[in-house]
Amino acid sequence: MSSPFHSPDSPTIQNLQAAFAGESMAHIKYRYFARLCREMGDEATAKAFEATSDQEVMHAFGHLDLLFPKSQMSPAKALQFAIDGETHEYTEMYPKFYDAAVTEAQAASEPFKAVLEKAGKRFAALAKVELRHAAHYQTALDTIKA
User: Fold this and answer.
1) What is the Cα–Cα distance from 94 to 92, expressed in whole angstroms?
2) Model pLDDT for residues 93-142, shown as the tens digit of each residue
3) pLDDT tens by residue, 28-55
4) Of 69, 104, 121, which residue sits at a domain end?
5) 46 and 106, same domain (yes or no)
6) Taking the alpha carbons of 74, 75, 78, 80 in that order, is the dihedral positive or negative?
7) Does 146 lie in the same domain as 84?
8) DSSP characters for the chain?
9) Are 33 and 83 in a shared domain?
10) For labelling, which of 23, 55, 133, 140 has a CA lying 20 to 30 Å from the CA of 34?
11) Same domain, 78 and 132
């Protein structure tokens, strides 16, 4: 994720991007852990993970405020950034991940081979979903521009 509003060579911008990624991953990981804890009957731990997860979102938003300044944004720009990101995912990221998973699975032993094969199938399926996401955003952008 790069920000067109700042130099990509700036160490601070690179750190903001890494911090955003880390906070975003923590948010989702803690939501997942909360779900697991709740399924295991531990409501108190689930709530602890959810409370921290909510804070991680606010941290990520803080980084985005600097990377994508509100004064330089518009709905059309936000949609175009989303289209670009989804397009990258379905044209480059997921196909590359799929190829790597298939190649790695060929040389792997069970039970790890099953994990790699499942990952490959998931990557292939998600590429199709990301294509739909990009198309959905494109429709919204076309509506705004009309």
Assistant:
1) 6
2) 999 999 999 999 999 999 999 999 999 999 999 999 999 999 999 999 99
3) 999 999 999 999 999 999 999 999 999 9
4) 69
5) no
6) negative
7) yes
8) ---TTS-TT-HHHHHHHHHHHHHHHHHHHHHHHHHHHHHTT-HHHHHHHHHHHHHHHHHHHHHHHHHS-GGG--HHHHHHHHHHHHHHIIIIIHHHHHHHHHHHHHT--TTHHHHHHHHHHHHHHHHHHHHHHHHHHHHHHHHHH-
9) no
10) 133
11) yes
78 and 143 share one domain: yes
Per the structure, the count of domains in the chain is 2
Tokens 């959905």 -> residue: 136
One-letter amino acid of 108: A
Encoded amino acid at 42, one letter: D
Q: What are 63's two structure tokens? A: 């980084």
Q: Are 124 and 94 in contact (CB under 8 A)?
A: yes
Structure pTM? Answer: 0.89
d(C-alpha 95, C-alpha 140), whole Å: 26
